[in-house]
Specification:
The complex is a heterodimer. Chain A is an alpha+beta fold. Among the domains of chain A are: 1-90 and 111-124 and 138-195, no CATH class; 371-456 and 469-483; 659-711 and 731-780, Immunoglobulin-like (Sandwich); 784-924, TATA-Binding Protein, CATH 3.30.310. In chain A, 53% of the residues lie in helices and 11% in strands. Chain A has 39 helices and 15 strands. In chain A, α22 (395-411) runs antiparallel to α23 (414-432). By secondary structure, chain B is α+β, with helices and mostly antiparallel strands. Chain B folds into three domains: 2-141, 2-Layer Sandwich (Beta-Lactamase); 180-270 and 382-414, Sandwich (Immunoglobulin-like); 275-377, Mu homology domain, subdomain B (Immunoglobulin-like). Chain B is built from seven helices and 23 strands. The chains are: A alpha+beta, B alpha+beta. Chains A and B meet through α2, α4, α10, α11 and α12 of A and α2, β7, β9, β11 and α7 of B. Chain B: It comes from Oryza sativa subsp. japonica (Rice). Chain B: Belongs to the adaptor complexes medium subunit family. Chain B: One of its GO terms (biological process) is gravitropism. Chain B: InterPro entries: Adaptor_comp_med_subunit, AP2_Mu_C_sf, Clathrin_mu, Longin-like_dom_sf, MHD.
């Protein structure tokens, strides 16, 4: 396919045929080809769905991964999502888990938001305006829809595959489509992969994390599977910690915490810091364990600070800082009930040397200095200590001391205000003399913001300063009370990709990543394709006499591709608009057009059911580009229509000049001359018979009696009929409407012979009986009369032509010279339109005299060059007698009027052999 | 799909390069990958993640015995397909060459390239079954190597299509010749256990594989049943196993591929006992840490426990270590790994390791504690308790010889101190 990108249509047909093969090996390889050639042709899967599901367990494991994905996309596009699947059930899960779980997933509001989030991430082109239609997207459940049930049933055995890729693909199907109560069967195989496929552990854990965040109760009983081994790589340890945090419950948290306590003694201190962070997350999620968590964390802080004293080890500092960060996160939820923790932290300032840790504790002190009963009592002493140690602190710690002092003053009661002001003044004085720009700037900023701290020094109190003081106090409250929104809060860029995809592992969309198709987007096209499936499944219906003009798909091809349907729909829309503009003039000019108009309106109603917004969603990129390329041609279309209207007027004036052929030469038959010409009449006996007009003439001087015609192949016709698949045993080879009893000299007689030609090209052997004698004769068939006119207007012609492209379209080039003789008789004419019209009429007359076609339109070019005939276009429509399939003929001219014209003749027909033969015949007629 | 497959040595050298699609991948990507290994894993390829994002490609890698299997792609594809395929390549090469290391690959470069050529078609896995591959590419042996050296005309490529190409079961050829009419079933189990710092057995489970070596003529039908299948928690099957008999009756029904293959892997969870105990004891005081580790038999399995080793890393900030054992040998490797080789536990005394660790200056107590990894092997018993009930063989002209064997070894057995 990569070598021949232009042959997509024929390759799609090949894929379609190969999907019907009986060998699982072939079907598996075809799935790979499907993904490469036409991954969006999901309608192609329709007729193969059941067989593909039944064959899936037997297919080779590598192709299973791809085929599972193809089938899943088809089911979603065809039926939509399952109402009781986990995607919807996450609603219930989140409500039962409380708001803590929502926070983990990143949605603060409610479960509905999470559900919509999953939709948006998994499904293609999901838009906000459809949020209200979620219920409509999932009208099926696995118990009411056979396809969904079959999909789940055929993927269940694959959970036992030895290939972890197959297991994850099957688990993804269940994750998206299975009812909630059936999801448990997926968990065991997934977790077993962690042990049995070590190489797959990292990828599998990444997917498990997504599953666990949405449905933690699924994995909660299996927490032991995520206990960490010393030999695990660091990234695996981090993932397991995150999963353990996500799935921890009231019942499992004691065992998990025992594990966490053991982890804290690991030599890998980076991992230990992660464990400490996990403890905080668990405490926030399960409030009942907060007290024991804080106790453990405080003990760890004291222990780590004592270690840091004796050894300068960076890893330990990280653990210490993380422990304090965890305490801070837990305290934030309810500071008043944890003031003892804060007091103990502040007391430990003496022993903690790490600057980052000291900064954190000072921040906590400043933030909660006015909360509770105990903290306010120690505030004066702590503030004095901070002022005393200011000069010896590190930069970040100094900044935090300034902030904390400011917060203390803002919230301080009146009794301590004067004392705090003294301390603040002292600290600011120290800060303004500091070596660091940051500290000096911060000091000046705060001193201007809190002017009353310097008012004490000046001892001045005026009304002007009082006004400024109020404004600055407002500013200070705003800044230090933490009410300002954080500009560094990360935006929610977290995206979830399909489980089992590469994008899910690398956390960005890899080239070629395709979300799931929009639910039920195949509904409309599937309904309209129902008759097509019927046609394809039943060979008898191909011979039906159904009106091909009444429905697009009755005579349509089972190989219609999605792109063609899209193109056809857009073409229909454009043509309908054009037709509306032209309809009134046509009706006004010709009475005969009324029937055509009615037919066109019927076709339009049928097309309208296809022209919906949903169809555009299925449009492939190439179809979109094709449509865009066609758009600029629209103005030409309009002018062409105008020309067509005028040319149609002359339709009736064309003479059909039947061409006579010699069937029997008088010199061989004692004076009986028989000429024949193909007739445009339709046989009343059977559609397989072609009407031939016979002309008998007696050129001798004697009477001829008992003239009749019989078929020489009467005995062989049985075999011939057997060989003809479309034949009927009841159809005779020839049907004669009458016999001639007596033919006098110089007398002529006409007869109609109905003939069944078994071959398009081979002559039919006949015997002419006269006066008891048998004279052999050969009746040569003319394929141009194996069709009959199919009246249709230009719009219908173009729609049908667009459906018969690719392998149903054949073209040949030839030259046309007849117009040169006619032009010589009109040399005196100076009008170029007459010349073009003359050429158009000349060729149309020639075609219609030799073929049983219906002239749809003759388009003449709109050009300023009198001599240029390029753009002349003739369109003829017909249908095959035996099958009633349409045959469309288009002839396009290039060249100058005074020279032989180069013509391109094109035939669109489903019957390949017939189409090619007809094309050759048309070319022969022209030349 | 995959564009290219490289085999890298332990020093980052490109040993084999196989381009899969029309878009050629420059081998400079391997240099980028090795710089990545040096930067993120200190040159230890076994510590690198299986999926790596480079500026130009997405890389998948699998590490085996000092050889890195690297694959490249630029488009979306299932990552587990790539990782499983690379694992399969490693398994097939191990099957062909007997072992997998840098020297063996270099010695058999042509064979490795031929195998890669057959295993993948335009970036998608094609033939991955060892049975089929061996029909197309003959495994190496001394005779063919000698002929190749002397005459230079020998070729190990088969001159006809493998029979399995027409077979309905892709893992078995339609005609198996010279079959010895034997079938052996071997249960290989690994015991995973974790003992926490309190001495409690936190987790204990057995991960087992049932390996079958089949040499049966024709297309035999085998049925394997267990005495106690209910103890099995999780299973994974070879493609030859039929799902319906297992779902209905917990019976394995299959047509085996010829030769050695892994029929099934399973897990038995929540076991209660381990055959041996390891009791570490570390006490530290004023800059010195005293170490004592005792090993003994507990819950005697009835068979000899062999190849016992205890391995742990010395904690950081250790100035010197003085460790001796009353049984076996103690080695301290360059990366501060202590390796105690015990072998078998004698009957008359319990092996114990004792000694002193001197802490760095200024450190009074040990605050990070090592984890002891235990290895052992027991022949003749499956510790999970899984037993084979019977094995039936049909569609063979004669009754074949059947052999059964079981063994257990330590998998991830950790004792925290």
């Amino acid at each position: 396919h990569d070598l021949l990108p232009d042959e997509t249509t024929s390759l799609e047909d090949t894929v379609d045929v190969l999907f019907s093969d009986n060998s699982p090996g072939v079907v598996g390889a075809t799935a790979v080809a499907f993904n490469s050639v036409c991954p969006n042709c999901l309608p192609l899967i329709s007729k193969h769905f059941q067989r593909l599901c039944e064959t899936l367990p037997d297919i080779e494991e590598w192709a299973q991964i791809l085929l599972i994905d193809i089938i899943l996309r088809y089911v979603i596009a065809r039926h939509g999502l399952v109402k009781d699947s986990s995607i919807f059930a996450s609603n219930l899960t989140l409500k039962s888990q409380g708001s803590g779980d929502s926070a983990l997933i990143g949605n603060e509001t409610c479960g509905t938001t999470s559900t919509i989030t999953l939709f948006r991430h998994y499904i293609e082109e999901y838009s906000e305006c459809l949020e209200g239609d979620i219920i409509n997207c999932s009208s099926v459940t696995s118990s009411t829809n056979n396809d969904v049930a079959l999909l789940l049933k055929c993927t269940s055995p694959l959970l036992w595959s030895r290939n972890s890729g197959v297991i994850l693909a099957a688990a993804s199907v269940h994750w998206i489509m299975a009812p909630v109560d059936q999801l448990n069967r997926v968990v065991g195989p997934i977790l077993f992969t962690l042990r049995s496929s070590p190489d797959a552990t990292y990828v599998m854990l990444g997917n498990i994390l997504v599953f666990a965040k949405t449905a933690p109760q699924l994995f909660a009983p299996f927490y032991e599977d995520f206990f960490i081994c010393t030999s695990d790589p660091y990234q695996t340890k981090a993932l397991k910690l995150e999963i353990l945090t996500t799935i921890a419950t009231e019942s499992s948290i004691p065992a998990i915490f025992e594990e966490f306590q053991d982890y804290i003694k690991e030599p890998d201190r980076r991992f230990v810091a992660d464990t400490v962070a996990a403890i905080a997350l668990c405490a926030q999620k399960l409030p009942s364990i907060t007290t024991s968590c804080l106790g453990g964390l405080l003990a760890l802080v004291f222990y780590e600070s004592s270690i840091s004293d004796s050894a300068n080890f960076d890893g330990e500092a990280a653990v210490l800082v993380q422990a304090i960060l965890s305490i801070k996160a837990i305290v934030r939820t309810d500071p008043a009930s944890h003031e003892k923790v804060i007091v103990r932290l502040v007391h430990s300032l003496d022993k903690i040397k790490e600057p980052a840790a000291r900064s954190l504790i000072i921040w906590i002190f400043g933030e909660y200095s006015s909360i509770g009963n105990i903290i306010p009592k120690i505030t004066p002493a702590v503030l004095k200590y901070l002022a005393w140690s200011f000069a010896a602190e590190m930069l970040e710690t100094k900044l935090q001391i300034l902030n904390a002092a400011a917060k203390v003053i803002i919230h301080s009661p009146e009794e301590h205000l004067e004392e705090f002001k003294k301390i603040m003044a002292h600290v600011i004085k120290l800060a303004t003399c500091d070596l660091s720009y940051d500290v000096r700037d911060r000091a000046r900023f705060i001193s201007r913001l809190l002017p009353y701290s310097t008012t004490y020094l000046n001892g001045n109190n005026s009304s002007c300063q009082s006004h400024n003081e109020d404004m600055f106090k407002e500013l200070a409250n705003h800044i230090f009370d933490g009410k300002m929104p954080s500009t560094f809060h990360p935006t929610n860029n977290y995206r979830i990709y399909l489980p089992g995809s590469l994008s899910q592992v690398i956390l960005h969309a890899a080239p070629g990543y395709a979300p799931l198709p929009k639910p039920q987007s195949m509904e409309l096209i599937h309904k309209t394709m129902e008759p097509t499936r019927g046609v394809g499944n039943s060979s008898e219906s191909i011979n039906s006499d159904a009106e091909s003009g009444s429905s697009t798909y009755d005579g349509g091809s089972v190989y219609d591709s999605e792109s063609e349907v899209d193109g056809s729909s857009d073409r229909n829309a454009a043509d309908s608009n054009t037709k509306d503009n032209q309809e009134d003039p046509l009706v006004h000019v010709y009475d005969a057009s009324v029937d055509q108009g009615q037919t066109a309106r019927d076709v339009e109603d049928n097309f309208a059911s296809l022209i919906t917004t949903d169809l555009t969603e299925l449009m492939s990129k190439s179809a979109l580009e094709t449509w865009l390329d066609e758009a600029p041609a629209e103005p030409v279309q309009v002018s062409t229509q105008a020309s067509s209207a005028r040319v149609s007027f002359t339709n009736r004036s064309f003479e059909r000049k039947p061409k006579l052929h010699m069937l029997l030469d008088p010199s061989n038959s004692n004076g009986l001359s028989v000429l024949y010409a193909f007739s445009s009449e339709v046989s009343p006996v059977s559609r397989l018979l072609v009407c031939v007009d016979l002309l008998f003439e007696n050129v001798s001087t004697n009477q001829l009696a008992d003239i009749t015609i019989k078929s020489e192949e009467a005995s062989g016709s049985e075999d011939g009929l057997d060989q003809t698949l479309q034949g009927s045993a009841s159809v005779p080879t020839i049907v004669l409407d009458k016999e001639i009893q007596l033919l006098a000299p110089e007398q002529t007689e006409k007869m109609v012979l109905q003939v069944h030609f078994h071959h398009h090209l081979l002559p039919l052997k006949l015997s002419v009986l006269c006066n008891g004698k048998r004279h052999p004769a050969k009746l040569h068939p003319d394929i141009a009369y194996f069709v009959r006119p199919l009246p249709m207007d230009l719009n219908a012609f173009l729609c049908k032509e667009n459906q018969l492209r690719g392998m149903f379209e054949y073209a040949r080039r030839c030259t046309f010279k007849d117009h040169l003789q006619k032009l010589e008789h009109n040399d005196d004419s100076e009008e170029h339109t007459d010349k073009n019209l003359l050429i158009a009429q000349s060729l149309a007359s020639k075609i219609l005299s030799n073929a049983n076609f219906h002239l749809v339109s003759m388009d003449m070019p709109v050009t300023f060059s009198i001599e240029d005939a390029s753009g002349l276009c003739w369109r003829f429509s017909s249908e095959i007698l035996s099958t009633s399939n349409p045959c469309l003929i288009t002839i396009l001219a290039e060249g100058h009027i005074s020279e032989p014209l180069d013509l391109t003749a094109k035939v669109n027909s489903e019957d390949t052999a017939f189409g090619l033969n007809l094309l050759n015949r048309v070319v022969a007629i022209i030349e | 799909m995959l564009q290219c497959v490289f085999l890298l040595s332990d020093s980052g050298e490109v040993m084999v390069e196989k381009q899969m699609t029309a878009h050629r991948v420059d081998r400079g990507i391997c240099g980028w990958f090795w710089d990545y290994v040096l930067a993120h894993a200190a040159g230890d390829a076994s510590k690198v993640l299986q999926v790596v994002v480079s500026p130009t490609h997405y890389l998948f890698q699998v590490y085996r015995n000092g050889v890195t299997f690297l694959a490249c792609t630029q488009v979306e594809m299932p990552p587990l397909l790539a990782i499983e395929f690379l694992s399969r390549v490693a398994d097939v090469l191990t099957d062909y060459l007997g072992d997998l290391n840098e020297d063996i690959i270099k010695d058999n470069f042509v064979l490795v390239y031929q195998i890669l050529d057959e295993m993948m078609d335009n970036g998608f896995p094609l033939t991955t079954e060892p049975n089929i591959l061996k029909e197309m590419i003959a495994p190496p042996n001394i005779v063919s190597k000698m002929l190749n050296v002397v005459t230079g005309k020998s070729s190990n490529l088969g001159n006809k299509l493998p029979d399995a190409a027409a077979s309905f079961v892709p893992w078995r050829t339609t005609v198996v010749k010279d079959a010895s009419n034997e079938v052996y079933v071997n249960i290989v189990e690994e015991l995973d256990a974790c003992v926490n710092r309190e001495g409690a057995l936190v987790k204990c489970e057995a991960y087992g594989k049932i390996q079958v070596n089949s040499s049966l003529p024709g297309v035999p039908e085998l049925t394997l049943s267990f005495s106690n299948p209910t103890i099995i928690n999780d299973v994974r099957f070879h493609p030859c196993v039929r799902f319906r008999p297992w779902e209905s009756n917990q019976i394995l029904s299959f047509v085996p591929p010829d030769g050695q293959f892994e029929l099934m892997s399973y897990r038995v969870k929540k076991l209660k006992t381990t055959p041996i105990y390891v009791k570490p004891q570390l006490t530290s005081d004023s800059g010195n840490c005293r170490v004592n580790v005792m090993v003994g038999i507990k819950n005697d399995p009835g068979k000899t426990i062999d190849s016992i080793t205890v391995q742990f890393r010395l904690p950081p900030l250790i100035a010197s270590a003085d460790l001796t054992a009353n049984y076996g040998t103690v080695d301290i490797l360059a990366d501060q790994t202590c390796f105690w080789t015990i072998g078998q536990i004698p009957k008359d005394k319990a092996p114990s390791l004792s000694g002193n660790l001197r802490l760095e200056e200024g450190l009074t107590h040990l605050h990070t504690f090592p984890t002891f990894e235990v290895k052992f092997k027991i022949m003749g018993v499956a510790l999970s308790g899984l037993q084979i009930d019977k094995l039936e063989v049909k569609n063979t002209p004669n009754a074949p010889y059947k052999g059964f064997r079981a063994q257990t070894q330590a998998g991830r057995y950790e004792v925290r101190s």
